[in-house]
Amino acid sequence: MGLFFDVLQAINNPNQQGSVSQLESITRSVQQATSNQGIDAGTTQSLISALGGFLQPALQQQQSMMGKNQLETLLGRFGAGTTTASASTVSALFPPQMQQQMIQTIAQKTGISSNILGSILPLLIPAVLGLLGMGAKTTGTGGGNPLLSAFLNSSGNTDLGDVFKFANRFLSPV
């Protein structure tokens, strides 16, 4: 739940790019992508958890190779809260062989077919990276992205599935 609090801080901090409308757009795109494939909310949460478990070490590796600023710049192509990105930007972060490994690993963890994952991961990856981009500083304020840093520096206990579950609860209070 700690990372979700970082999302809320990004929304409430005028020096960060996050907003409630961006969070709504991201959660809606995840829900649409998965429900169009007949994936229920519980399985979606497992899928996002597995995706986050793969993205964290992959982004940590990219950061060690590129440097923090260059990774943040590359992730900036996704824009804060965006749900789309070019295939070349996704491929720059995750080469095709890594994407295939991601699909196989997530398929094993979730039971979702690799064909379905192959069609929805290009939609989900930009959404997740857009969520992390919500922590980027606004133009002219300088500094890094504390939301991305919190995700990358956690000791593997950051569950993005929980972040999306809490985001949905936040956006749709009962």
TrEMBL record:
It comes from the Bacteria. The lineage of its organism: Bacteria, Bacillati, Cyanobacteriota, Cyanophyceae, Leptolyngbyales. InterPro entries: DUF937 (IPR009282). This is DUF937 domain-containing protein.
